[in-house]
Amino acid sequence: MAYFGTNGVRGRFDELTPELALKLAQAIGTYFKGGKIILARDCRLTGEVLRATVAAGLASVGCEVVDLGMVSSPTAEFMIKKLAADACVIITASHNPPEWNAIKVVDGKGIAISRERGAEIEKNLAKPKLAEWNKVGLMLPYAFATEDHVVAIKKLVDAGQIAKRKPKIIVDCGNGTASVIAPKLLKELGCEIISLNSHPDGRFPGRPSEPSEANVQELLAAVKSLKADAGIAWDADGDRVVFVDEKGGYVIGDRVYALSILWKLKKTSGDVVTTVATSKAVEDVATRYGSKTRYTAIGAPYLCEEMVRKPAAIGGEEVGGVIWPELCLAKDGMLTAAKLAEALCEKSLSAWLKEIPVYFNVKLKLDTDTDAKKKAIVARVLAYAKKNKLAYVDVDGVRINLKNAWVIVRPSGTENYVRLFAEAKTQEEAQKLAKEYERIAKG
Ligand code: MG
Hints:
This protein has helices spanning about 20-30, 45-60, 75-80, 115-120, 145-155, 160-165, 180-190, 215-225, 255-265, 280-290, 300-310, 335-345, 350-355, 370-385, 425-440, and strands at about 10, 35-40, 65-70, 85-90, 100-105, 140, 170, 190-195, 230-235, 240-245, 250, 270-275, 295, 315, 320-325, 360-365, 390-395, 400, 405-410, 415-425. It has about 450 residues and is of the alpha/beta class. The chain folds into three domains: about 10-145, Alpha-D-Glucose-1,6-Bisphosphate, Chain A, domain 3 (3-Layer(aba) Sandwich); about 150-355, Alpha-D-Glucose-1,6-Bisphosphate, Chain A, domain 3, CATH 3.40.120; about 360-440, Alpha-D-phosphohexomutase, C-terminal domain (TATA-Binding Protein). A hairpin with a 5-residue loop joins strand 14 and strand 15.
């Protein structure tokens, strides 16, 4: 049985048990040859038990464990280079409900471990290399990671301008680990901060941890009624971020990414990396600045791998995770928030949003009952693209890039359907496109 998914090993407490966590930690430690491993966790109620177990597992195979305690995921990943670690293990289930948890692994270069590399780690499950009694690893706490991360971010934005403009920002940390850094960071930058759900609580009592529009209604209303310049909400481990403009309008993840590209490419040049599920608004902004867009399979590990394979100015995914390679390869919801504060010194968020093209989308599910049928659907769409000489990317399903529109068919990894997603300049065109490709897919 394979444990590693797209980004780590995930499960409820009766699936990702302490026993399994111990074995996985020993396998991970063996894979990294008993090196120096950073360990961090989010604020879930099972976090401390799993952290203690993973620490024991890593040290038992000779790893030196540097324990950062409860910090945001981008903070933990930022520390890899700073502490010259060989890897980083984060106990977090990101945006999932509170009863879930996960073990996420990032290597010494800052690249998240994919399903494929996870399979390599799992080979060690059968034969963990238990250390000699006098070579068992040390377990050392390190209490300054959040402070180090804040200092590093402040160097990457115009802190002087922000302190002068003092944007009023309402932060909604969703009771996740953004609580330990986001209000502090933005306050130190000179923003006026009002905080919602900003104490860590692993039951997520304030709102569900996914910062979807439905889940951040309180923030939308607060930005409007308190006349703030913007609102910011994170998922439970602080790598993903969404914005709210000064009119109370929700800014979805891929528009957050498109904005980030805009801010980055105004000052520097380079390619843009994103997943095949991302809005065309991203490519449109990149093209405006003469930058090439490189598409990857869905999942943070694939973004990181592509950015290491060939340099890029920025990387990001459709749900609001943005990688700023000048800092590290983590999706960093904290640096993205600081960049928003900087951008607000120039003009309002709604004025910035006018520079991002608007698209409409339609999502369909094509039901199938076997993997063979899923493959056949994807193959039919790919054959159609080739026959009609359409621009396509087939690293994860098939994405077809058309003028002012695109469509993707992609098999679900866990369930019996193929997703079909179409995006166009109007809702009618998106609907038409989705129907057209549904016919093609069904053959
Ligand atoms: Mg996350």
